[in-house]
Design a protein that fits this description.
The complex is a heterodimer of chains A (283) and B (293). Chain A is an alpha/beta fold. Chain A has 11 helices and 10 strands. In chain A, 45% of the residues are buried. The termini of chain B are far apart. With 293 residues, chain B is of the alpha/beta class. In chain B, α5 (160-172) runs parallel beside α6 (190-206). In chain B, 34% of the residues lie in helices and 23% in strands. Classes of the chains: A alpha/beta (283), B alpha/beta (293).
Chain lengths: 283, 293
């Protein structure tokens, strides 16, 4: 059970003068139950990549497999795929449209053709999972705060009971507490339900804090695909790609250069703190 | 000098006096449901040439406040003066809009030209600047944000950070005294964020343009001259970045945070390492830790 990219290429406006390769020979294996971070500068191919995962885009060459089946085979059931691989777009709250939150979350499961009772049960569960208080269920989604709206939008995807959930910058535009809340919510979902999470993010600190593995896209290719520690060892290359390492990783490097005996691999605040305390002989 | 202007000696770039802004909520039939007070008695003074940061959680009133600074919104109560001009005074409307430029979050919503240079020239053209001078202004503005190489490019082919810098060039071409940036980096990647903040700082230091930066990224605030923190339409904290970031717990209560380095130093302090309060940069942290050895 996994998503596999086998030599996937994608060219925008193929056969025209505007032809432009967005994905070049991408090979990836995303096993079940992983929490993965996807980073890369604007235009590096991240969005094109995730749109291949639920069949919104067909590769120009190569094959995408979901659970060992070619998702672009003529007989493959794509509607079913889209329920199983849920995609939460950037600013998903712009897609809310119903008169109340509950109805909005019902929309997805209803389209799956489920009986009304099941639809409502799923919507209820999903709204509970994202931590929306009952008071808001029958309010217009447009009266909610930015963070709450985003939760409702995420619930809309969760109600499809996906096996994989892809989130494209779910924290964009939120205040620091809102960012933390959404990331904790995603992390809890991952822990409790074992769902595979693919998190697209521009925040190196967030990625370092939460994910198990990082995929770095650069100019349409997979530049790195490894654990956060391994990826953030390549600071120079990351900077050349328009990215960076978490602030604490730079700190550790500078401390090491100043003669402190610290592990420069620390990528989270907790690790950095412990390393510094150790170097100072305080624990 | 126009009579309604305050004397030069006490002229602030932005000066709000007991500013209140309320909007009326209506139901589907248009009946009044209630009144929301989005800005509640704000007294904010910005000196010419300052770099100001405004922090606050979603819905705290930052953007509503910012829209008063170039007469996109008018106060329900109180007054706003921009460079000595009262914003409600229609006579000064265009002068205010030219002096105080705005940059918004989404670069795609602000670019109208098919070619970068056309987009940048749009502002001065509307102001009736002679053609030769428009091109001069386009030149200097693109240079100021280091986008002169992309003069003939189509904005569609630029990265988010580049587009945002073109938007800034479009504002500079109108020769503003002040630029208000409302979360200009929210949609950008790390490189784009760096580019935009660097451009903002250069405009402040080299050109002396007053900058008001609204942001959710604490790292972008450390070099500001002054920081204002908003909550429920009020200014609840005001000070230098060091004064503000020394109050980690208070900021957390306000749904905000501090830069990661500051937080690391804060955590180390709690574990007994004798560090000063509010370490703002990596360099400061390394220096302070050297003294602890």
């Amino acid at each position: 059970m996994s998503i596999i990219f086998d030599h996937v290429n994608y060219i925008y406006d193929e056969d025209t003068a505007m032809a432009h390769a967005a994905l070049i020979d991408v090979n990836l294996k995303i096993p079940d139950g992983k929490f993965i971070g996807l980073i890369g500068h604007t235009g590096s191919g991240k969005s094109t990549l995730i749109q291949h995962m639920n069949g919104l885009i067909k590769p120009s060459g190569g094959t995408v497999y979901f659970n060992n089946e070619d998702i672009n085979a003529p007989t493959y059931n794509k509607k079913n795929l889209r329920a199983r691989v849920g995609l939460v777009f950037q600013y998903p709250e712009h897609q809310l449209f119903e008169t109340d939150c509950f109805k909005d979350v019902c929309f997805g499961p209803k389209n799956l053709g489920l009986p009304q009772k099941d639809v409502e049960l799923r919507a209820y569960e999903a709204l509970k999972q994202v931590g929306l208080e009952d008071d808001f269920f029958y309010q217009s989604p447009f009266d909610l705060s930015g963070g709450q709206k985003r939760r409702v939008a995420i619930a809309g995807v969760l109600a499809m009971k996906p096996e994989v959930m892809i989130l494209d910058e779910p924290t964009a535009g939120l205040d620091p507490k809102g960012r933390e809340d959404i990331l904790n919510l995603i992390s809890d979902l991952h822990k409790k339900t074992g769902i595979t999470i693919i998190l697209v993010s521009h925040s190196m600190e967030d990625v370092a804090d939460y994910v198990e593995r990082i995929i770095v896209m650069n100019k349409g290719r997979v530049a790195f695909d490894a654990e956060p520690k391994e990826v953030f060892r390549h600071v120079t290359e990351l900077e050349e790609m328009g990215l960076a390492a978490p602030q604490v990783t730079y700190c550790m490097k500078e401390l090491w250069e100043a003669g402190f005996d610290v592990d420069t691999d620390a990528t989270t605040l907790e690790e950095a703190k412990n390393e510094i305390l150790k170097a100072l002989g305080r624990c | 000098m126009k009579s309604s202007k305050i004397s030069t000696a006490m002229k602030k770039m932005i000066d709000t006096d007991k500013l209140v802004f309320e909007y009326i909520r209506r139901d589907e039939e248009g009946n009044v449901e209630g009144i929301t007070r989005a800005i509640d008695g704000v007294d904010l003074k910005v000196e010419p040439g300052q770099f100001i940061a405004v922090l606050g959680h979603n819905g705290s009133g930052k953007s509503t406040l910012a829209k008063h600074f170039n007469a996109l919104l008018y106060p329900t109560e109180g007054e706003v003066h921009v460079d000595g001009m009262l914003t409600e005074d229609d006579e000064h409307l265009w002068e205010i809009r030219q002096e105080a430029g705005m940059i918004f979050q989404n670069p795609d919503n602000q670019i109208i030209g098919q070619v970068v240079e056309e987009d940048v020239g749009f502002g001065p053209e509307n102001m009736g600047v002679p053609t030769d001078e428009i091109w001069e202004r386009v030149d200097e503005s693109l240079k100021a944000v280091r986008m002169d190489k992309f003069r003939k490019a189509s904005p569609n082919h630029l990265s988010g950070g580049q587009k945002q810098r073109v938007s800034i060039a479009g504002v500079i071409a109108m020769h503003p005294k002040c630029i208000i940036m409302d979360e200009p980096t929210a949609m950008l990647d790390p490189n784009g964020r760096r580019e935009v903040i660097r451009a903002a700082r250069a405009l402040n230091q080299v050109e002396g343009i007053t900058i008001i930066l609204i942001t959710h990224y604490m790292e972008e605030v450390v070099d500001a001259d002054r920081v204002f923190v908003m909550d429920k339409g009020r200014i609840v904290m005001e000070g230098t970045p060091r004064e503000i970031f020394a109050q980690v717990d208070r900021l957390k209560e306000l749904r905000l945070g501090v830069p990661q380095v500051t937080l690391l130093a804060h955590e180390l302090r709690k574990s007994g390492v004798p560090l000063p309060e509010a370490v703002l940069t990596r360099k400061e942290l390394v220096e302070a830790l050297k003294k602890c050895r």
